[in-house]
Amino acid sequence: MSDNIQIARLYQMYSPAVFGCAYSILRNRAAAEDITQAIFLKLLHYDDTANPIKNHKTWLIVATRNLAYNYIRDNKRELSPEGHGDIVADGFEEQAIYSIEIQKALDVLNDIEQQLFMLHYLDRYKYRELSEIFSIPVGTVKTHCHTPR
To answer: Which fold has domain 1-76?
Structure first.
């Protein structure tokens, strides 16, 4: 994909969702920003003549998820062990305590449940959109989103 104007438009529309997805997996602001940049660079250099992208949002989220998991695998030592070190560094103690409590509750969930919960409730993805992104039935998405509550 080489149309810079279209890339800029897609970046404006979807960079918050891409960052949110990366951050929900990595729990590290700097790493999530790196992943966001890498995904849009990947989109910029993507050759869609052989395999055109049908839904850019789905492609971006799936690519983000995959790249974030690769990042975790390759950089385990660089990530904050508790996943909330960048929040504490900002000095917002009350927010940090609240974030730690939320993180403990989320840690009980498996990776897919965490992602679905965060994308649905924080990023406001619809069940149908999550079903397409994760390639699972809508009913399963609903179950995963409602069970943690």
So the answer is: Rna Polymerase Sigma Factor; Chain: A (1.10.1740)
Q: What's the pLDDT tens digit per position in 119-140?
A: 887 778 889 988 888 889 999 9
d(CA 118, CA 147): 13
* pTM score, whole prediction: 0.57
What's the sign of the alpha-carbon dihedral 95, 67, 137, 49? positive
Distance CA(24)–CA(29), nearest Å, equals 10
- Residues in contact with 114: Cβ distance below 8 Å, sequence separation at least 6, in sequence order: 24, 25, 106
| Residue 4 to residues 8, 43, 76, Cα–Cα distance (Å) | 6, 11, 34
Question: By the 8 A CB rule, do 60 and 38 touch?
Answer: no
DSSP label of 81: S
Amino acid at 93: E
Distance between CA atoms of residues 60 and 64, nearest Å: 6
Residues with Cβ within 8 Å of 149's Cβ and at least 6 positions away in sequence, in order, are none
